[in-house]
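assembly run, all chains below
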Amino acid sequence: MKRSVVGHKILKGIYHYFLVFFLSAFLVTCTTMLFVSVLSETLEIELTGDHLQTAAKLTFLNVIVLSTLFTVFDTIRRKLTTEKITRHITSAAKEIVKGDFDVRIAPIRSFSVDDNYNEIIDCFNTMATELSSVETLRTDFIANVSHEMKTPLAVMRNYGTLLQAPDVSDETRLEYAKTITDASGRLADMMTNILKLNRLENQQIYPQTKPYDLGEQLCESLLRFETVWETKGIKLDTHIGETVLVSADAELLSLVWNNLFSNAFKFTENGGKVTLSLTSDETWAIVKVTDTGCGMSPEVGAHIFEKFYQGDTSHATQGNGLGLALVKRVVDIMQGEIGVESVVGVGSTFTVKIRRAENGLEEAR
Ligand code: ADP
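ok done. output:
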């Protein structure tokens, strides 16, 4: 069945070729004859009908033979160059369709091959690399979520079992119940963060930007940590000078400040110091959150904005590595900038730049 289809295709191809060849040969013969007869009249050479007939036949045959030869030559050339490469690219694309994102095509270093093919191959390889990194991210994400869920779930199950024992004192029972509540709280926080991040990444959140007083918002966010800094005896230093208006989504930006303050207090030992400063230049409102905490190495610093990354595992139970990923996403959405400077054992400074509101205080009011 397949063979007869191929045969039919070849016959059709030959028929079309010869139709074109015959037409071309006929046209070339006619114009040559016209040219020859005009030339013979100009040069006063007498040509007989026999001469003209032979010349016409020769021209006609010449065109047919040359066209066939060129076509055969071109078909072989295409088989060796174009078709071989396109087959190669097609079979690699089929592998991608099957889900094998490791497939790559080697560039072709042949003089006879068009450079455009190497461009296509380059794009194909880039696409395959992108697809494979997306796949890795997806599988990593599932593995991370499962891993992060396992610990609090195990805690909840174990303490739930312990609670069922008949001889548990009231005090111990309360302690177990608190551990279960904490673990479920952690799980709920993680789910909330994942959902927020997901919505931010899929652009399902449309920022409601309006100008407002950033200093006021920073003070409100900071005050939420009052019990933490009092319990840990952390000294607080704030430098909020003149009123700085930003044009941003206040609810989204409060996520940024909460996460930065939460980390600053979390990673600073008892008796340490956290500094908040707000300054501005022509374009930006510049917020700096500095702590005298454990700091981080450049290797850790390079990954802190990745999802589920935790450089400091001693505080792993107080987070799940999603905070700074959220922060980065929000800052990007606000078209702001974020950076960190840190020295191990000395402390860290996170700098966030948010665009200032162009209009004055009136608009904010
Ligand atoms: P987590 O909720 O685990 O703190 P984050 O995304 O907020 O996750 O932070 C990721 C990592 O960045 C932390 O595990 C820690 O290693 C590092 N980090 C963030 N803020 C600080 C800081 N102020 N001082 C030192 N390390 C920090």
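The beta strands are 210-213, 235-240, 245-248, 273-280, 284-291, 337-343, 347-355.

The pocket of adenosine-5'-diphosphate is lined by residues 259, 263-264, 267, 291, 293-296, 300, 304, 309-312, 319-325, 348 (CB under 6 Å).

not gonna interpret more than that til we talk
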